[in-house]
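Deadline looming. Please check this record:
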Amino acid sequence: MKVVLLAGGFGSRISEESIFKPKPMIEIGGMPILWHIMKEYSYYGYNEFIICAGYKQEYIKQWFANYFLHNSDVSFDFRNGKNEMAVHHSELEHWKVTVVDTGYNTMTGGRIKRVQEYVGNETFMMTYGDGVCDVNINKIVEFHKNHGKKATLTAVKLKQDKGILNIGGDNAVKSFREKNIGDGAPINAGYMVLEPSVFDLIEGDSTVFEREPLEKLVEQGELMSFVHEGFWQCMDNIREKEMLEKLCEAGNAPWRKW
């Protein structure tokens, strides 16, 4: 099952660093938060990633282009007028990574729509490139397969200004409201499992996935929530970045199961 990662936004609320690089490439614990998210999925055996890039997309492409070199022991031999390179040892993940330029000003739904050809006609996973979580991804997938609906999102209960969910007793999402005042209600934490029919609900680049598509899924009774009571934290600003950094430094980062 492929994993789609949204990594194309401007990251304006953490502009201290996003002025130089895309927000998902801002480092915590010496590695981009995007890498941490990919390691989470890889821990559960999901190793094929499609990255929806946009703002400073060349930075992401260059980072992965150099990943093999930066994680290997290498000899460069310039003797006799040659330029030869030999790789001795490497520590690499078993990943296939497709980085797609989904446009500079494209909205979240539009970015997902633009990678449809790479996803194909199969169930896929999707999450945001700026939040880490210790959720059991295999359990989300199992939950999704069992209920048979078009979409599953992970819900967490935190007092934050995110997408507020009204969840029924059967875990079906009854309503979805985006960015209201945080009141302790369940919020959309990403870590979604989606059927390919979801692409049909996205009109184009201007579509915000958290609005029309999710609202239509609610109306159809096709959006379910997997309630996660463990750790989840996004990185919207410097304060949150520093908090995640401290967890890494202390060896107490809940999402680092690998």
Remarks:
- The first helix runs from residue 15 to 18.
